[in-house]
Write a structure and sequence with these properties.
The protein is 28% helix and 30% strand. It is of the alpha+beta class. The structure holds nickel (II) ion.
């Protein structure tokens, strides 16, 4: 396994719409293993392939966090239903050092295919629901900072780019 470089905002690959995967190749399996390793080292709750520079529809998510983690790699994930809302703090490995409160659906159902080519479906809420939504957003070229109000986004851009160029 190998650690991958995590692309950071404003890298343009983060804005690409990732392509659907029609065949699970050895290369994709290896990539998913490397993404899990990279996510864990960075202490992230999830990682999308765009974030390591490969815009294909593959995400890894930590189903359980802590010492006994349980990572899954999901191909072509989709949110099939969502309900109620919750405001909670969010961050992103591609936007290091920045956290903000974001409103999202609280409960979601997610569908996809596991890396072993088995159907995957989960209903979840709270942190896990947020992680799936956040990672699937990445596949659509969307970042959590896109949910900020225009005023907050301007403040973010000034501060973030200043810190990045230091
Ligand atoms: Ni992210």
């Amino acid at each position: 396994m190998a650690l991958l470089e995590i692309r950071v905002y404003p890298d343009r690959v983060l804005r690409e719409t990732a392509k659907p995967i029609d065949e699970i190749t050895d290369e994709i399996i290896r990539l998913s293993q490397d993404m899990i390793e990279t996510m864990r080292l960075a202490r992230g709750a999830g990682l999308a392939a765009n974030q390591v520079g490969i815009p294909i529809r593959l995400i890894v998510v930590e189903l359980k966090s802590g010492k006994v983690g349980k990572p899954v790699a999901i191909i072509n994930p989709e949110i099939i239903s969502s309900e109620s809302e919750e405001i909670s703090e969010e961050g992103c490995l591609s936007v290091p050092g920045y956290y903000e409160y974001i409103n999202r659906p609280k409960k979601v159902s997610v569908k996809g295919v596991t890396i072993d080519n088995a159907p995957f479906q989960i209903e979840c809420e709270g942190h896990l629901a947020r992680a799936f939504q956040h990672e699937i957003d990445h596949l659509n070229g969307r970042l959590f900072i896109d949910y900020l109000s225009p005023v907050k986004k301007n403040i973010f851009k000034k501060r973030y780019l200043k810190q990045k160029n230091r």
